[in-house]
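## Example pair
The file below holds two records. Each record gives the amino-acid sequence first, followed by its structure token line.
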Amino acid sequence: MVRPLPQSILFCCDHNSVRSPMAEGIMKKFYGTECYIQSVGVKNDLEIDGFSIAVCEEIGVELSRHQSRSFDQMEEWGDDLSSFDLVVALSPASQRRALELTRFFHLDVEYWPILDPTGLGDNRERRLVSYRESRDQIILKLTENWGPPRTESS
């Protein structure tokens, strides 16, 4: 069932280098400026993943300038977790962290079990297949929740 877009949404995963940046970038492409969209990780110990950049580029989503950040850095940089209407966790660890950090706030935390493609595939093409599967799972969840893309700007 399609529901209204939240005013602000935060995607989170383990490192903010694969799934959550893909979700942030794709949502921005699909729904433009209709809501405020950001992403974070439980940790910030990795740069944006090159395979994520490649599979998003295939659909016109540019991720190469993404700066990975953690929940702690998000707060330091001025994004208050309580200001988001919805937190979407894309990994079990990020769901636990989001629930822990939001236990005193009135906001929704959802868990979307998106495949972690890192380490899958024994060559470049097989890895790209795994990353495309994760990207396509994100697209499916976005369109199931908020309908077809409303804009084609990136």
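Second record, same layout:
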Amino acid sequence: MFSAGEVVIYGTQGVCCVKEISTMKFGSTKGEYYILNPVSDPKSVVYVPTEKPALVAKMRPVLSPEELETLIEEASSQRLEWIENDNERKDYCDRVIKNGDRAEIMRMIEMLYLRREELKDQKKHFHNIDAQYLKAAERLLHDEFAYVLGIGIEDVPEYIRSHMK
């Protein structure tokens, strides 16, 4: 169970602060909800019913700076090969974004980034869907890194590059 004031990652919303836990009524349904404010958009509010384990499972504590360092080290030693089949790649990217496994997100970002650079060198087009997955994955990962490290979101890629083996 999370407490008011805790900072968590929630699904694809990214870093959120647990504003409070409150009993609320939506339509005819009354229940207890986590009330989250995304750090990147403090005016937004996300309501997570505490009685829905599948939704609560999407809430995870943010990593510590030491855990981020370990994550970078592990991800840099496990490169993911390009997935040639468009449908398989789409399924993989969907699954990674939804599961929120940070190491897998880092490997996916690297895979997509390397492919984009390879195509750029060949003066070929990077698929829009791949660009969208890259942007979504970077937003999730960079949001947490920036928050935990106290740096600007624009500084995260360089931070990761400088800490990779």
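Notes on the second record: DSSP finds six helices and five strands in the chain. The first strand starts at residue 7 and ends at 10.
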